[in-house]
Design a protein that fits this description.
This protein has helices spanning 10-30, 92-104, and strands spanning 42-43, 55-58, 64-66, 69-70, 81-86, 109-112, 115-116. The chain has 118 residues and is α/β, with parallel strands linked by helices. Strand 2 and strand 3 form a beta hairpin.
Length: 118
Amino acid sequence: MNKKYQHGPNSTITDIAFLLLLFFLILAISTLQTPVPLEAASTNAEILENTDIATIVVSHTGELFLDGSSIALDSIPRQDTYALLADRNTPYEIIHPIITFLKERGVGTLYCLVEDHP
């Protein structure tokens, strides 16, 4: 009795599908995602590597998000350091009260995040 073994792409396709799935999962987790679409300002400044800093996102309409969740200005908890990311088209009249509030709240360091363009 001779058994014929079928050599085919069955395991190869499964391996490729699994690797693609892992690639897209890692890519989705590693990219910074804002709760609203932003067109950030650009600069050639030094890159901030510490990702443990709480990030306040400001939309061009003035909506605030803290680490991805919508929040009111007076609900922002006391902390020594924050990062601020705002849309390029956000008027200064919206950003200034946020910076003033954080200063009054005792924030010692406020990082203003921008896109890196060489």
